[in-house]
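Bumping my old thread because nobody answered last time. Still need a sequence for this structure:
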C-alpha cells in the first residue's frame, strides 16, 4: 500500500481540474486580484447555500472570529465563553482584543461545549459565547441559544470545521451550521470541508447592521473611501481563492456525503471493539466529519499511533493540550484538573485519515491494521 495521506487534496483537485484551472485563468486574465468579480459571485452563491442574508468574505477563519467579536462592539474586560477543547484560534482572538476568555468543559462524546457548563460560567461580565462545532458536529445549540437569550449574550459560532452540517431544532426548524447564532465564522484553509488553495475565511449573519460593521472592519474601518469611522483591520478573500471556492462549493454536499460514507465504513469496522470508542452522533446535529476521531485507552494511544505510522497510516492528535493548560493562556483562575473531560480527551483522542476521496480498499487496510494492533497488543 502506498503512503496514505491524512487529507487527499490532489485527487480531489484532479477531478475538477479543468473547471478550477479555467476559473483561475479568468482571474489572471482580468488581473482583478483583489475585490474581483469572483469574490462577489462566490459571496452570493455561499449566501444561497447557507440560506443567510449576508456573507462577509475575509482573509482566514481566525480573522473571521476576530472581526465578529469586533463587530459586536465588545470591550476589554468583557468575558467571552469558549470551550477549552478546541483549536487555539477560538481563544486567541478573544485574548488579542483584550477580552477575557472564560473556558468551559466539553461533552465526552460530541467534543463540544455543553449548555450546562456554559450556564455555570456566566457572570455579570459575560457578553458572548463562542460554541465550536468541533470535528464537524454542532454543539447543543438549542439549549445554548436559550441560555444566551435569557442572559442577553451574543452567540458567535465557530463553524470552521462544520460547514455542510445541519442542526434540527425541536420545533422542526433546520438550520445550517454557523447560521444559528448572531454571527457564524468559517475557514477555507485547504484541508477544511470547503477549502481553497491558500488562506480564506468568511463570517455570516442575518443582521444588516452586524454585516455592515464586519464589512467595514475587514476594510480598515472604512465605509466611505478614506473615511475611517472605527479601527479596523485588512482582511480579504482574494479573487483567485474565491474563484476556486465558487467551483468547489458546487461539490460541497458531495464532499460531505463522501466523508459520511467513509465514517460509516470506520463505524462498521470498529464499533465491535471494546477498546475503541467511535464518535457518537448527536441526535440533533448531522455530522460533516471534518475529523473522524476515536478514543482509545490512554496507555495504548501513542503506541497505536506509532504502530499505524509504521504501517504507512498517518493519524493526528487533535488536540493534545486543552486551552487552560497552554503556556500562553496560563491563568491564575485555572489549574490542571479543572476541566476533567477535556483533559482526559487530550490523552485518548486519535483522528484517523478523513477526506472526500477515501476508497474502500484503503479504509479496510487501515481498519484491519487497527484491529491487528488490539488483537496482538
Ligand atoms: C481552522 C480553524 C480555525 C482557524 O481558521 P484559519 O483559517 O486557519 O485561521 C478556527 N477555529 C477552528 C475550530 C478551526 O478548526
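Sorry it took so long. Here it is:
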Amino acid at each position: 500500500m502506498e503512503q496514505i495521506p491524512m487529507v487527499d487534496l490532489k485527487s480531489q483537485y484532479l477531478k475538477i481540474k479543468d473547471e478550477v484551472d479555467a476559473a483561475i485563468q479568468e482571474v489572471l486574465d482580468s488581473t482583478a486580484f483583489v475585490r474581483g468579480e469572483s469574490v462577489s459571485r462566490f459571496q452570493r452563491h455561499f449566501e444561497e447555500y447557507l440560506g443567510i442574508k449576508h456573507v462577509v468574505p475575509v482573509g482566514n477563519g481566525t480573522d473571521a472570529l476576530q472581526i465578529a467579536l469586533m463587530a459586536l462592539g465588545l470591550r476589554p474586560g468583557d468575558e467571552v465563553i469558549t470551550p477549552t477543547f478546541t483549536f487555539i484560534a477560538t481563544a486567541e482572538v478573544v485574548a488579542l482584543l483584550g477580552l477575557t476568555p472564560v473556558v468551559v468543559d466539553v461533552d465526552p462524546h460530541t467534543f463540544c461545549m455543553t449548555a450546562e457548563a456554559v450556564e455555570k460560567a456566566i457572570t455579570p461580565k459575560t457578553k458572548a459565547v463562542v460554541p465550536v462545532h468541533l470535528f464537524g458536529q454542532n454543539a447543543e445549540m438549542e439549549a445554548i441559544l436559550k441560555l444566551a437569550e435569557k442572559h442577553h449574550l451574543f452567540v458567535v459560532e465557530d463553524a470552521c470545521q462544520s460547514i455542510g452540517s445541519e442542526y434540527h431544532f425541536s420545533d422542526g426548524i433546520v438550520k445550517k451550521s454557523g447560521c444559528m447564532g448572531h454571527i457564524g465564522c468559517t475557514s477555507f484553509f485547504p484541508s477544511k470541508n470547503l477549502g481553497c488553495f491558500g488562506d480564506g475565511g468568511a463570517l455570516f449573519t442575518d443582521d444588516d447592521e452586524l454585516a455592515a460593521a464586519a464589512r467595514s472592519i475587514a476594510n480598515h474601518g472604512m465605509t466611505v473611501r478614506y473615511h475611517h469611522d472605527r479601527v479596523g483591520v485588512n482582511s480579504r478573500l482574494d479573487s483567485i481563492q474565491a474563484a476556486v471556492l465558487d467551483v468547489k462549493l458546487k461539490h460541497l454536499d458531495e464532499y460531505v456525503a463522501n466523508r459520511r460514507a467513509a465514517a460509516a465504513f470506520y463505524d462498521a469496522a470498529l464499533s465491535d471493539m471494546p477498546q475503541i470508542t467511535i464518535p457518537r452522533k448527536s441526535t440533533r446535529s448531522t455530522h460533516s466529519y471534518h475529523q473522524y476521531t476515536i478514543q482509545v485507552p490512554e496507555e495504548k494511544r501513542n503506541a497505536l499511533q506509532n504502530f499505524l505510522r509504521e504501517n504507512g497510516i498517518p493519524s493526528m492528535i487533535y488536540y493534545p493540550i486543552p486551552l487552560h493548560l497552554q503556556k500562553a493562556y496560563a491563568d491564575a483562575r485555572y489549574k490542571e484538573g479543572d476541566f476533567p473531560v477535556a483533559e482526559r480527551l487530550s490523552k485518548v483522542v486519535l483522528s484517523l485519515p478523513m477526506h472526500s476521496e477515501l476508497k474502500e480498499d484503503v479504509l479496510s487496510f487501515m481498519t484491519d491494521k487497527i484491529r491487528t494492533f488490539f488483537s496482538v497488543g
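The CA atoms of residues 18 and 60 lie 26 Å apart. Let me know if any region looks off to you.
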